[in-house]
Design goal:
It is a single chain. The chain has 268 residues and is α/β, with parallel strands linked by helices. The chain folds into two domains: 1-79 and 238-268, no CATH class; 99-236, Aldolase class I (TIM Barrel), CATH 3.20.20. The chain has an eleven-stranded mixed beta sheet. The chain has helices at residues 11-18, 21-37, 55-67, 84-90, 92-95, 111-117, 128-137, 157-167, 185-193, 198-209; strands at 3-8, 42-47, 74-79, 100-105, 141-147, 171-175, 211-215, 221-225, 228-233, 247-250, 256-257.
Length: 268
């Protein structure tokens, strides 16, 4: 086991579901302790939307983590980057507990196009170059989690890595887009904008040009390519059957699950 993911929803939703905020926090603490006791070493702060929209919940989790007998030392935040630099300044003390910022992006070459695809408010477009440079200056490890679409069909893999080198990121994860299978608006968008053979091209390039490092607990191989820690994640929703858990997930109800989209995966 590697990741304990804490999926944030609106604080009002959390309170409504729990009925009692203190009891809710106690339940979360028990599940964090359980994950820690069972070999989980990474705490991932994430969301079904934008995690930073609910900073109070993030602070709650970080506060609980500090109170654990054996706190998570490896803490990551997954975010689109919208409002990130302001949040770091305002919640400076709490961000000291976070070691890695994982920026979710689609277009690494064009910040405006990236904002359009990710439906960012126009006045809150994330300038990729500046944001990465600022995060590095502040001492964070920076990962780009690239959601692969057809914009990369006409881009060579070497061009992608040249861009990553230019940005001076520490890590990159290439993510295959996941469909829910429920014919949602998002599913239709993925059908229209799928990445084609990009995942296969990237995987082949990494094997040819990278150095194997180690196999991650959930099965993916990590490589070093041009000094960048590199992973291809073609199962980001943990749908494949494996003999290990990829995630433990604390959902908005404060309970622990192993799947993002299946309440039948409840542990307790």
């Amino acid at each position: 086991m590697s990741f304990l993911c804490f999926s944030h929803e609106q604080r009002e939703q959390k309170i409504r579901l729990s009925g009692d905020v203190n009891r809710y926090k106690l339940n979360v603490k028990k599940r964090m302790e359980f994950a820690r006791d069972n070999g989980t070493n990474t705490l991932m702060l994430t969301s079904t939307g934008e995690a930073l929209e609910n900073m109070e919940s993030i602070v709650d989790v970080l506060r609980i983590n500090r109170d654990l007998e054996s706190p998570f030392k490896w803490v990551e935040l997954q975010t689109s980057g919208v409002g990130l630099l302001d949040a770091i300044l305002f919640y400076r003390d709490w961000f000291r507990d976070i070691s890695t910022i994982s920026l979710s992006v689609v277009d690494i070459f064009d910040s405006i196009n990236n904002a359009n695809i990710m439906v960012m408010p126009m006045d809150r477009t994330v300038p990729i170059n500046y944001t990465v440079a600022e995060l590095k200056r502040m001492g964070f490890n920076v990962r780009l989690s690239i959601n692969l679409t057809n914009i990369y069909n006409d881009v060579s893999v070497s061009q992608i890595f040249r861009r990553l080198i230019e940005l001076e990121v520490d890590q990159v994860t290439f993510r295959k887009l996941y469909k829910s299978g429920e014919d949602t608006k998002q599913d239709k968008w993925i059908d229209e904008n799928s990445d084609g053979f990009t995942v296969d091209r990237i995987a082949l390039y990494i094997k040819d040009h990278g150095q194997e490092l180690e196999r991650l607990p959930f099965g993916a191989m990590k490589y070093s390519v041009e000094g960048i820690s590199t992973v291809v994640d073609d199962d980001c929703m943990a749908k494949e059957m494996k003999n290990v858990l990829k995630y433990m997930i604390i959902r908005e109800d404060g309970k622990l699950y192993t799947k993002w989209d299946d309440k039948g995966s409840l542990i307790f």
